[in-house]
Structure formats: C-alpha cells, structure tokens
Write a structure and sequence with these properties.
The chain has helices spanning 12-30, 33-43, 52-78, 89-119, 122-151, 157-160. By secondary structure, it is mainly α. The protein binds protoporphyrin IX containing FE (2 copies). One protoporphyrin IX containing FE binds next to helix 1, helix 4, helix 5 and helix 6.
Length: 169
C-alpha cells in the first residue's frame, strides 16, 4: 500500500539501491560480449563452456531483477518524495514517465534475457537487444534531467538521491 503522506526524502536503503542498481545496469550494458558468444554457441548446438563473462552477465542480471523487486516493494510501502512544485509541469511529467519506463526495463531486461538464455527463444533475444537501444537514451535523458533539475531548476532532487532523510522526516 502506498504511504499516505509522501516522505520528505529517500531512505538510506532506497539511495543505496538506486546507485547499486544503476552501476550494475551500466555494467550489463558494457559487459555482454561473452554472453552473446555463448548464446550463439548454444543456438548452434555447440557446448557451453561456462565462460566466466557469460555467467557474470547472467548472475548480475538476475541480481538486478531481485534488487528491482525489493526496490519497488520499498517504494510501495514507504513511498517516495513528491516532485518539486516549482518545476515546470512538463519537467515533472517527463521525470515521472522516465522513472516508470526505467522500472519497466529493470524487469523487462532480465526477463527477456532469462527467457532467451533458458529457452533459446530467438525472439526474446531480439527484444533483449532492442531493449538496450531504448534503455541507453532513457538513462542518458534521466541523468541529464537530474542534472538540469540541480543546475537549472535549482531543486534538491539530486541531493535527495545522495543524502537520506531520517525515517520520520
Ligand atoms: C538489467 C539486466 C540486463 C541488461 C541491462 C542486459 C543487457 C544486455 C545487452 C546490452 C546485451 C547485448 C545485446 C546485443 O547487442 O545483442 C545482452 C545480451 C544478452 N543477455 Fe543480457 N542484460 C540483462 C540481464 C540478462 C539476464 C538476467 C540474462 C539471462 C539470465 C541475460 C542474457 C543475455 C543473453 C543470452 C544475451 C545474448 C543475446 C544475443 O546474443 O542475441 N541478460 N544483455
Ligand atoms: C542505469 C541507471 C539508472 C537507473 C536504472 C535509474 C533509475 C531510477 C528510478 C527508477 C528512479 C525513480 C525512483 C523512485 O522514485 O522510486 C530514479 C530516481 C532518480 N535518479 Fe536514477 N537511475 C539511473 C541513473 C541515474 C544517474 C546516472 C543519475 C544522476 C546523474 C540519477 C539520478 C536520479 C535522481 C536524482 C533521482 C531522484 C529524482 C527525484 O527524486 O525527483 N539516476 N532513478
């Protein structure tokens, strides 16, 4: 259930989860050559040699999935701070839309990857690849939005994702 009164800031756990997941997602976007090779070998019915890079991609990806579930549960239980009313409405709308989309990808990427890997479904591998093309610009827009809020609109959005508020704040 959503919190009745929005908290003034994020909790330590929410902040740690945000930055941990962000780092792991960027890792996944950078480290995927081995899993692509292994997936191709499997599709060609060649034996999977257990390449460490492929296992790492799968392990980190499944970890992201678990952390995303935890994060969403905390969001629903504790709530998140309100967007700043001083921002132009379009900025808040774009920020909210980006958050929804990023959450969706935190689930969609591991799911499409896992379906591709565990069932060999080519369509799922293609969706996984397509996901990357959508995810990267949205991460960039999200980061630019955070910086714009800080430097142009002068809100504390970035600060509140770095410094936690006490539980009763
Ligand atoms: C947020 C989590 C994840 C992200 C951001 C991510 C990202 C990526 C990226 C960017 C590629 C390269 C796509 C390409 O250019 O062809 C890739 C490939 C792949 N990933 Fe993931 N991945 C994630 C989770 C997972 C998980 C959990 C699994 C499996 C359990 C997985 C399995 C694969 C496979 C099999 C490929 C090769 C697909 C192909 O070559 O067509 N991924 N991933
Ligand atoms: C893979 C990278 C990233 C992902 C998946 C991601 C995802 C998210 C999500 C889903 C939220 C909404 C949190 C919630 O309300 O529950 C959020 C908030 C936020 N993110 Fe990210 N993020 C990433 C990278 C970044 C980067 C690089 C920055 C900074 C330059 C950043 C700054 C922020 C800030 C400041 C907020 C809080 C916005 C507010 O309170 O109004 N994020 N992020």
């Amino acid at each position: 259930m959503a919190a009745r009164v929005a908290p003034k800031g994020y909790s330590v756990l929410q902040i740690v989860l945000h930055w941990t997941i962000a780092a792991l997602v960027i890792f996944q976007l950078l480290v995927n050559d081995d899993v692509q090779d292994a997936f191709k070998d499997r599709s060609d019915h060649e034996p999977f040699e257990g390449e460490i890079g492929a296992l790492l991609h799968i392990g980190v990806g499944l970890t992201i999935f678990a952390l995303a579930i935890l994060r969403l549960a905390i969001r629903l239980w504790r709530g998140v701070p309100e967007p700043h009313s001083t921002n132009p409405p379009l900025v808040n709308f774009a920020g909210h839309a980006a958050h929804v989309l990023l959450y969706a990808f935190l689930f969609a990427m591991p799911l499409t990857g896992a379906i591709a890997w565990f069932t060999g479904l080519e369509l799922s591998a293609e969706l996984h690849e397509l996901g990357r093309l959508i995810l990267i610009p949205f991460i960039a827009l999200h980061a630019l939005g955070a910086l714009a809020e800080h430097f142009i609109f002068r809100t504390n959005s970035l600060i509140r994702m770095l410094k936690a508020e006490p539980p009763d704040a």
